[in-house]
């Protein structure tokens, strides 16, 4: 059953960690309102770009920890409508086991193809037995697949990965701890039976793919999806010289994002005629203006110049 579900899901490709568009108007709680029409339109745009890709909504770049369960359900429905079957949609879920199960059920109900289980510190603190039980309970509650998430705050062991590899609902392992050799060890330990999806954006793709990854997560692809797909295509086919050359295209973009943060991607979307808006997640680091958590004039000027130089605008 595990192999059948994994074959249906097909984990290869670019995993776009989609920005959650926001309006400048606010909710009663004083938070920027989610722009559901903007989300649907953005996903529709991404879905029409040719190549292997999966839309990951309500992830880290999608401001997961600032969203309510009801908002996540609505965003999921909007994303599925925008994708219109042209690409897969994975929804971030998390929190306590009870809340994660409810979120997973909602994601399935609105038509998402899988869920990404975001680390929850109280569960992580109890150790791998509790982490396993948490994922087991989520898996039993849904018919779609899920992706466990290895991150600096949740460094799951190879032994636990081997257990996940035998789980019928695990369609891939998400690795985002910058541990390239760990990916290779994991692939060998699981006899290459479970796909690995890696983080680090485009800059790390050639190295992770050489270790055995088949897909990568990226916020930058909100602006660069065609180029990101080209990079994936070169790396998955083992064309390493081309992959390195494609990787180098992203160097200056990655550098600017590390300086300007998430508002760079939202502002870039707006420059492309898509929906962005302010950043709601106040734990992020970014430039601000009186209009909200957005790039200031200087930041927008620098971004526009770079996007033109890269042929994006």
Describe this structure in words.
With 313 residues, the chain is of the alpha/beta class. The chain has one domain (2-243): TIM Barrel, CATH 3.20.20. Helices cover 48% and strands 14% of the residues. It is built from 14 helices and eleven strands. The protein has helices at 2-9, 36-47, 69-83, 97-109, 121-124, 128-141, 158-165, 180-189, 205-211, 221-236, 240-249, 251-260, 262-271, 297-309, and strands at residues 13-17, 22-26, 32-34, 53-57, 88-93, 114-117, 145-147, 149-150, 173-175, 196-198, 215-218. The strands form two sheets. The protein has a nine-stranded parallel sheet, sandwiched between helices. It has a two-stranded antiparallel ribbon with strand order 2-3. Strand 10, helix 9 and strand 11 form a beta-alpha-beta unit. Helix 4 packs parallel to helix 6 (128-141) and helix 12 (251-260) packs antiparallel against helix 14 (297-309). The N and C termini lie far apart (45 Å). The model is unreliable at 284-292 (pLDDT under 50).
Please tag this protein with its features.
single chain, 313 residues, alpha/beta, TIM Barrel, nine-stranded parallel β-sheet, two-stranded antiparallel sheet, 14 helices, 11 strands, 48% helix, 14% strand
